[in-house]
């Protein structure tokens, strides 16, 4: 059996995808470049040759996750309901949610933290830019998105949701009843 030779750019994309898979399970501290290499079916030295370090690979995964959100928002239109619907669709991408949460958790690392803060700020500014809403409305939208990210990661939302408990219903009910309801 012969393997198809990938370009460096294609291999880099493959490694970032594998990194998101690995980091979304075990986080930054719990994942090694060898874990990523095994998922991508390449050698660990090759991962280092392309990315330089685990930190840079993690950052590439975090950037991919936030790029995905920005792309979805840009395609969604110019109102909060459209952006909310776009984020609602992204909630099904479990690895994306986990990568975001692990990115926030790894932000005590000064280099990772700077990138994560920058990317979070970009998403916030994009919401304001696309919709023209007030600071308060943008803040509420982003805060609701963060709550949805956490609830999705906890399996409170989505196709594989756990049985609802009263607190879950209270939290999600208030979200779906809000003026920025993605289900409107």
Q: What can you tell me about this protein's structure?
A:
- This protein is an all-alpha fold.
- The chain has one domain: Tetracycline Repressor, domain 2.
- The protein is built from 9 helices and no strands.
- It is globular, with a radius of gyration of 18 Å.
> What radius of gyration results from the CA coordinates?
18 Å
Assembly state (oligomeric): single chain
Alpha carbon gap, first and last residue: 52 Å
Total of domains: 1
Mean pLDDT: 90
Q: What's the CATH architecture?
A: Orthogonal Bundle
CATH topology: Tetracycline Repressor, domain 2
- The stretches of 5 or more residues where confidence is low (pLDDT under 50) are 179-184
**Mass-distribution shape:** globular
* Beta-strand content: under 5%
Profile the largest sheet.
Answer: none
Individual helix count = 9
The number of E-state strands comes to: 0
Question: Any descriptors?
Answer:
mainly alpha; 72% helix; 184 residues; transcription regulation; Tetracycline Repressor, domain 2
Topology at a glance:
Blueprint: H1 8-26, H2 33-40, H3 44-51, H4 54-76, H5 80-90, H6 94-105, H7 110-131, H8 135-153, H9 166-176
Protein name: TetR family transcriptional regulator
DNA-binding region: 32-51
Domain HTH tetR-type: 9-69
Concise description?
By secondary structure, this protein is an all-alpha fold. Helix content is 72%, strand content 0%.
């Amino acid at each position: 059996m012969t393997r198809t030779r990938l370009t460096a750019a294609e291999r880099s994309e493959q490694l970032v995808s594998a990194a998101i898979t690995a980091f979304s399970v075990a986080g930054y501290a719990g994942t090694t470049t060898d874990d990523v290499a095994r998922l991508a079916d390449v050698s660990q030295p090759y991962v280092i040759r392309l990315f330089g370090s685990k930190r840079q690979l993690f950052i590439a995964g975090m950037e991919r996750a936030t790029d995905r959100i920005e792309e979805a928002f840009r395609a969604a239109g110019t109102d909060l309901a459209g952006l909310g619907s776009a984020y609602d669709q992204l909630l099904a991408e479990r690895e994306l949610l986990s990568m975001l949460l692990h990115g926030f958790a790894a932000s005590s690392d000064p280099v990772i933290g700077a990138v994560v803060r920058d990317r979070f700020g970009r998403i916030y500014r994009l919401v304001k830019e696309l919709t023209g809403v007030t600071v308060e409305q943008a803040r509420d939208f982003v805060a609701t998105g963060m709550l949805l990210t956490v609830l999705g990661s906890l399996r409170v939302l989505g196709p594989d949701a756990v049985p609802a408990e009263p607190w879950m219903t209270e939290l999600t009910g208030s979200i779906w009843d809000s003026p920025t309801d993605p289900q409107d």
